[in-house]
Amino acid sequence: MAQLLEQLAAAMRAKAGKDFPVPPPDTPQVLYSLVTDDGGAVVSTPATPIGNDPDGSRRADWRKTDDAKHKPPAYPVDETDDQKPKVNDTTANCHGTTFGGGGFYIDINSVGKILLDNYLKVNIAAGQKARVCDVIVWGGGPKHSALVVEVGDDGKPSMVIGKNGDLGRLWAHPPDDYGTDWEVYGRRNGFDGATQKEIDDLKSAYKKAKDDSDADPKDEAKRKKAHLAAYALCRRKNKLKEKP
Predict the structure, then answer these.
(1) If DSSP codes are grouped into helix, strand and coil, which group holds residue 172?
(2) How many other CB atoms are found less than 10 A from the CB of residue 20?
(3) What is the pTM of this model?
């Protein structure tokens, strides 16, 4: 199994053209724990806490490089105690945060299948408008992904939340921080396995935070609270089905 994971890692690095973060050797060896709405297998492993962080020095270097991509109005996201599972300091990567509810590391080569089975492209260039809880991908998908938590008056995503690799940390940032080659996709269904109460509670919390922010647009604390409420809602809406 370790050899298979290393082969997957090599394929990921080759496609990404760089030393892309991969799960550490002690990551649970479950390779197909998620599926698309059409039943397509998603190469994924449950995320685990970093613990004593054997990758500490590499993580510090990665975060230093990643942090340099961001300038205000971007900011690092501090997860709240009620936000579970947390993704900072776990092996969850960007795609596991976007499509796995924060609880998984998802192989970059599965992103195309996820988008094909579960999403419709939002044609921004043709005048279609993005919505909160759409997903945004760079480089066609494998490069990076995040959740749309704010949309500007022009109908384009203005702020997104994502994590750059398993070594990174959550950032809220404008889409262009990772390049202009981004595309937006809207979930066909969503909220798989969620109760109506869970959905209603998440929507209600977001509406309240958004209304508070809109009433006082210069209050950055309220704006960030709205982002975090959107992040919780969007992460749950876009979470893939777990394989029985």
Answers:
(1) strand
(2) 19
(3) 0.86
